[in-house]
Design a protein that fits this description.
Length: 316
């Protein structure tokens, strides 16, 4: 019970840290005139993927690679099945052509690329550097292909009303403070989650990969869930869908890449045939749904949610 309490406390701390980080980062990005789809694909995606990054780094440094792998795979499954499924049930999600024909193929390509990279059952430091280079190229491409038109700010009136220079500086300082505080909470929450999850897995005789796929993955995906649900309710669907696609790309490149650079990750033999195959299946299921009428309808959201539940049952 004490270990379970540590795990749950870590998830709560992680959630608030991610919310503050995303809020501050997205406001700063909006003040620079970045379009919503670019914000969703980069700033928000990076912020909501920060919990997975912290958890994976702590797990790798403490010698728990299974937890790191399960966290990334489980988070990508949850992003597609759980989060997009629930979000589209709240409000059908309109999808930009750009997401279907540009970002979605990039996500699929990177997902399939994990097979040859991890074929030797290890993510080496060289593999990590390669994934980080892919991420850098992706970020440059997204920002250069973004357009300044239709710029929205999540703060509404703040951008439409002239703000004195001193007040604007104070607002920017507040946003920077939120980013810093959110980052600190992410580190603390990540440490608590890894410590609690490892102890719970040991006590119950469950593998670290399974714990990473379930409790830890869903816990670290709470920021994506909260962000996407709020965006859907406010009908800012560029951020909702772009956040999920961008988060999956960040998980496979930034998190795997950074973690492997810090400490090479040993890949269990079953991961490529089970967990990664599950991510590929859910990704391939999502693409035709996005193309059907350029929106995710409620019944399609229910289909994604059902597939996620079935996939989780099969993996466990």
């Amino acid at each position: 019970m004490p270990n379970l309490a540590v795990l749950i406390s870590g998830i709560v701390v992680l959630y608030f840290g991610a919310v503050w980080l995303v809020r501050g980062a997205s406001r700063l990005a909006s003040s620079l005139g970045v379009s919503p789809i670019v914000v969703g694909l980069t700033i928000v995606s990076l912020g909501t993927s920060a919990p997975e990054l912290v958890v994976c780094l702590v797990a790798a440094l403490q010698g728990n690679p299974g937890l790191a792998i399960g966290n990334v795979m489980g988070s990508n499954l949850a992003n597609i099945g759980l989060i997009l499924g629930l979000t589209s049930l709240v409000h059908p999600l309109e999808v930009k052509h750009r997401v279907v024909w540009r970002e979605m193929p990039v996500m699929l390509l990177i997902t399939f690329a994990i097979y040859p990279i991890a074929f030797d059952r290890v993510l080496s430091r060289m593999d990590g550097f390669m994934l980080l280079l892919v991420l850098l190229a992706y970020l440059v491409w997204v920002f250069r292909s973004g357009h300044p038109e239709e710029i929205k700010s999540s703060q509404g009136p703040r951008d439409s009303i002239a703000t004195p220079e001193g007040a604007a500086s104070l607002l920017n300082l507040k946003d920077i403070g939120q980013v810093a505080l959110g980052s600190a909470f992410l580190v603390l929450g990540g440490y608590c989650i890894v410590k609690g999850a490892v102890e719970v897995a040991s006590a119950l005789g469950i593998s670290e990969v399974i714990i990473g796929l379930t409790v830890v993955a869903i816990g670290t995906s709470l920021p994506e869930l909260a962000t996407s649900l709020v965006a859907a309710m406010r009908q800012e669907v560029d951020i909702a869908v772009g956040n999920i696609i961008g988060s999956n790309i960040f998980n496979l490149t930034a998190i795997f890449g950074t973690t492997a650079v810090v400490r090479p990750i040993m890949i269990p033999e079953t991961v490529l045939s089970r967990e990664l195959a599950g991510v590929v299946f859910m990704s391939l299921l999502l693409w035709p749904i996005l193309r059907s009428g350029w929106r995710i309808k409620r019944w399609e959201g229910a289909l994604l949610l059902t597939a996620y539940i079935g996939m989780g049952w099969w993996l466990i």
